[in-house]
Amino acid sequence: MSTTTEYPTRADDVTAADPSDSVRWGPLLVVLAGTFMTFLDFFIVNVALPSIHDELGAGPDAVQLVVAGYGLAFAVGMISGGRLGDLYGRRRMFIIGLALFTLTSAACGLAPNAGLLVTARVAQGAAGALMTPQVLAILGTMYTGAHRAKAFAAYGLAMGIAGVLGQLLGGALIQADIGGSGWRGIFLINVPVGLLALLLAGRSIPESHGLRSRLDLTGTALVTTSLVAIVLPLVEGQQHGWPLWTWVSLGAAPLLLAVFLVHQLARRSSGRSPLVDLSLFGNRTFAFGSLASLSFSVVPPAFFFVLALYLQQGRGFTPLFSGVIFAAVGAGFFAAMLTAQQMTARLGRQILALGALTVAGGCAALALVAGTSSSLALTPGLVITGFGIGMVLVPLSDMVLAQVAPEHAGAASGLLSTAQQVGGALGVAVIGVVFYRSLGGGEVVHAFTVSAWVLAGLTGLTAVLVQLLPRPVSG
To answer: How many domains does the chain have?
Structure first.
């Protein structure tokens, strides 16, 4: 079989041609290594924020941009990244993205000041945006049936582990202070991992393409500008007293999005390939699943962001001990992972709603005990929150993409990943505003309590949106 494969129909899927063939898990491990790194770097930095603040003199806006700048670049480049994979090869774009991610990780670890760190983080997010949509597309075209469900569950697991254990790994790396690296070690660790994955990627991942056409550069510029216009003022506004440009930017964002949609419709009607195939949203599962994914993705990154500040600045814990406390979230997540498949078979779409409400319960429990003197009192709320995150993340991608045709795998994967990353960047930006506004005279515990209650309320939107999904769901 040729290593380059077209995917105009399901029959041309690499694995669909002979479902009895043994499943190749080697490519899965390689692409999940890339997934793990990109999502790890969204979360691992949280535990290092106080150290970055102290060593580089980073203000609140720079601290938020270290997280949200990465997420924003990740989000705005995801759709284009998916289309580039369709056009020029998913394996090729994955390898290029992985190489750039490794290089920019080194730049983050060597940054001499806050400005260059933020710049390197934005570049790192853009590299991740080129790599990540290829992962879902590769999995969607390589695996079918029960193997496909397991592959997507592994993808959700990689995201979850990166989120809930990233803080512990980050704390351990900072505490180890390898070669005097301090917080820089959380970025430099990507270099050897990335080089090893690059060595294996070209040998193990088969090439695939989607529908071929020219990239919509105007559409790319419009959607990028729209998303920046939403997130940037939310990050910068609080620190600078909400100057006029922040309100102008927020007001322009919906207009830019409207222009983008009109442009996409015009390209389609003229027979040219749009950046976003809006017909994908005619699939109810994909449309409402993406919305549910967007709403839920607001919560975990924002939760980890304020929890890290609360533990180190509010409670005075070291990065390593904060990471150990974060491990309670990981324990809950792993418990959900072990039971998610059975729960999904029984509950179908409602596992997503139940998981979201479980996260709400965990956040509420933490808000009630935030002022306690015992760190053990935090454990139940953290475990419950982790369990709820796992209930959502493990089955989510397979549910949303279950009915997407292979030729649209790259575009659909890019859209779903964009929704998740936009949600994450918005979550950090919005909850960052809530946290710093509630900080007042420096009462971090109070600011965390308010933020936790807001996060608990936000999860209710996901539970509502899940009810709009059609009842038959591929689990």
So the answer is: 1
